[in-house]
Amino acid sequence: MFETVPLTVGDGGFLYWAIVFFVLALVAAAIGARGVAGISMEIARIFVLVFIVLAIIALLL
Fold first, then answer.
1. How far apart, in whole angstroms, are the C-alpha atoms of residue 23 and residue 1?
2. What is the DSSP letter of 11?
3. Per-residue pLDDT of the chain (61 residues; tens, 9 = 90+)
4. Furthest-apart CA atoms within the chain: distance in Å
5. Which residues are within 8 A (CB) of 11 and not within 5 positions of it... i.e. 6 or more apart?
């Protein structure tokens, strides 16, 4: 009856990987691997920033 449409901008690659690394960081923090959690959060933060910059550029062009 209802179709599901994925919510993506472009191919959604950077946002997808940002969410994956964020979840990995949460799991690592929950089991006590603080080093892995910190690195995963930094990677997720970079991917989110790249996604935001590319989205703004795409909206302006």
1. 32
2. T
3. 556 655 555 566 777 888 888 888 889 989 988 888 888 888 888 888 888 888 888 888 8
4. 46
5. none
The pTM of the full predicted model, rounded to 2 decimals, is 0.67
Q: Which two tokens stand for residue 51?
A: 């996604």
Report which of 53, 52, 45, 51 is spatially closest to residue 25, judged by C-alpha positions: 45
Burial class (CB in 10 A: 0-12, 13-18, 19+), 5: exposed
Q: Where are the domains of the chain?
A: 13-60
Here the tokens at position 53 are 């910059």
Find the helix packing angle between 13-31 and 34-60, rounded to 10°.
Answer: 160
Question: 39 and 29 in contact (C-beta within 8 Å)?
Answer: no
Tokens of 50: 């790249």
